């Protein structure tokens, strides 16, 4: 049978699925694998959101199709959240759109903007979904190399002029997966200026907007004066409210882009279950105290593992947000051989940096989504390892 398209046949296997298979194989041999590979919080969704879902699910009016752009209650809650959190005004009718998670939205946005052959500037290393989405849309990728020396914040002079001319959009993601880097508002000013000068749409992925540590607060690109002319921003309840399985997110910003994406989506999906949207509205309208206490849990885990890794001689930049640590691999290893060593010798699964692009080489991403007790076990096991030529 010749039924599968070239496009799909050429999709790289979703890396996390492959790691999952290796984990299962070891578990079948009776090994207690600690999975620090997965990029999802382990904590439960706050109870008040579950209660809201139960209540909304009982109402027959919520069993119908949602309006194509999402229900007004949710869009209004998003606009209100932006006003409170960032001081940014959004028109809930025209500048806000419900998504069935950011991943869906990113794919469809790229379909909305690209013609075959158009290029997109993507962070390298970056979230692998961006690259796949560009591939499926028949587009080309231009690398935006993110480097440790610059704190993994973009240096736009690294993009060649002749490449830039083909580019239609640029993606950024801060607080960053996988590098854990964070930015200041001034970095978004630079990004918007660059987008304006080169006639690009700036797409900022803020999946970790509320998972921040200490007194650091993640800014929004839309706080830059005039940003809505050049940018859209993605938000998701997945990470901040521990709602990955609920599939609920949003995109805000440029009206024309939002309208076009809404038109595309109205032909593909019919938005999210109304009860999920209404419960998500209640989440965003809340005092965000639960989000804060979840962030504190991630911060404590981060501190614990950060100090342990540093003590055994591994180099780690201390993050101000996200649910990860981005760890330099010791001399004599590649990201893959180091990840393989951890898995085979001590049953710890981490993600090799190369999975996030060529510039991820030399790093592994360690997820903080296990309990402190489990992290103590991780630390105990790590201390038993010997590295080639020390660290
Ligand atoms: C997890 C993640 C997403 C996906 O979020 P969903 O709303 O669950 O689809 C998007 N971007 C980044 C960088 C992520 O880490």
What does this structure look like?
Its EC number is 2.6.1.-. This is Aminotransferase. The chain folds into two domains: 133 residues, Aspartate Aminotransferase, domain 1; 238 residues, Aspartate Aminotransferase, domain 2, CATH 3.40.640.10. The strands form three sheets. Strands 2-8-7-6-5-3-4 form a seven-stranded mixed beta sheet, with helices on both faces. Strands 9-12-11 form a three-stranded antiparallel beta sheet. It has a two-stranded parallel sheet with strand order 1-10. The protein has 391 residues and is of the alpha/beta class. The mean pLDDT is 95. Helix 4 runs parallel beside helix 11, helix 5 packs across helix 10 and helix 12 runs parallel beside helix 14. Bound molecules: pyridoxal-5'-phosphate (PLP). The site of pyridoxal-5'-phosphate has 14 residues, from helix 5 and helix 9.
Provide keyphrases for this structure.
2 domains; binds pyridoxal-5'-phosphate; three-stranded antiparallel β-sheet; Aspartate Aminotransferase, domain 2; alpha/beta; seven-stranded mixed β-sheet; 391 residues; Aspartate Aminotransferase, domain 1
């Amino acid at each position: 049978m010749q039924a599968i398209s070239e496009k799909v046949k050429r999709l790289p296997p979703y890396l996390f699925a492959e790691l999952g298979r290796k984990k299962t194989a070891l578990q079948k041999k009776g090994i207690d694998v600690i999975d620090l590979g997965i990029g999802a919080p382990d904590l439960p969704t706050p109870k008040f959101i579950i209660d809201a879902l139960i209540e909304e699910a009982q109402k027959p009016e919520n069993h119908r199709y949602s309006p194509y752009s999402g229900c007004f209650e949710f869009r209004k809650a998003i606009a209100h959240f932006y006003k409170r959190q960032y001081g940014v005004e959004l028109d809930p009718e025209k500048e806000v759109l419900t998504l069935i998670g950011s991943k869906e939205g990113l794919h469809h946005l790229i379909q909305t903007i690209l013609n075959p052959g158009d290029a997109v500037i993507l962070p390298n290393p970056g979230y692998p979904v961006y690259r796949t989405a560009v591939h499926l849309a028949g587009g080309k990728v231009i690398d935006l190399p993110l480097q440790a020396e610059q704190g993994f914040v973009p240096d736009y002079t690294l993009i060649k002029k002749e490449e830039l001319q083909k580019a239609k959009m640029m993606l950024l993601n801060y607080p960053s997966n996988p590098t854990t880097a964070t930015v200041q508002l001034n970095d978004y000013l630079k990004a918007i200026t660059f987008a304006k000068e080169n006639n690009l749409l700036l797409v900022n992925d803020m999946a970790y907007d509320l998972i921040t540590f200490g007194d650091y607060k993640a800014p929004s690109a839309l706080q830059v004066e005039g940003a809505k002319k050049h940018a859209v921003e993605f938000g998701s309840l997945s990470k901040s409210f521990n709602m990955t399985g609920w599939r609920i997110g949003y995109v805000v910003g440029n009206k024309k882009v939002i309208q076009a994406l809404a038109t595309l989506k109205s032909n593909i999906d019919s938005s999210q279950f109304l009860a999920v949207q209404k419960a998500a509205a209640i989440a965003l309208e809340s005092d965000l105290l639960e989000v804060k206490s979840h962030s504190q849990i991630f911060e404590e885990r981060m501190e614990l593992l950060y100090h342990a890794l540093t003590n055994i001689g591994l180099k780690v930049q201390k993050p101000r947000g996200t649910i990860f640590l981005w760890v330099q691999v010791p001399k004599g290893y590649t990201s893959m051989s180091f990840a393989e060593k951890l898995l085979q010798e001590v049953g710890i699964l981490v993600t090799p940096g190369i999975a996030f692009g060529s510039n991820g080489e030399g790093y592994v991403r360690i997820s903080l989504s296990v309990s402190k007790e489990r992290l103590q076990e991780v630390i105990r096991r790590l201390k038993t390892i010997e590295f080639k030529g020390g660290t």
